[in-house]
């Protein structure tokens, strides 16, 4: 994987300066890693937006079936889908006008990351927000 998708300055900026994170794949299931990551960032002052076909409320926040349905401006889209589905979520993030995409550990799609970067988004791939938060 190219180091350009793990730039410490981008990671630090996204964790400290962003306000709204949409989490693709976030459902009301505390047993899933996406739930834990969303809760951690929410506790650190970020607004989280669940994006899941069920569109259920999660962690006190209204859920939406797709990124296109989210009425708020999104700073970062966390793509918590298997790698083979990540590209679609990244393309939706680009179309929705997100400022950045974050693909967590083991979610690697270099072609999708390149599309996002070419569209002007910041990209972090194969990194964990919780681990990176602890490093900052």
UniProtKB/TrEMBL annotation:
Q: Which InterPro entries match?
A: CoA-bd (IPR003781), NAD(P)-bd_dom_sf (IPR036291)
Q: What is this protein called?
A: CoA-binding protein
- Top-level taxon of the source organism: Bacteria
Name the lineage: Bacteria, Bacillati, Actinomycetota, Actinomycetes, Streptosporangiales
- Show where the CoA-binding domain sits: 14-107
Q: Which SMART domains match?
A: CoA_binding
In which organism is this protein found? Answer: Actinomadura monticuli
Matching entries from SUPFAM superfamilies are given as: NAD(P)-binding Rossmann-fold domains
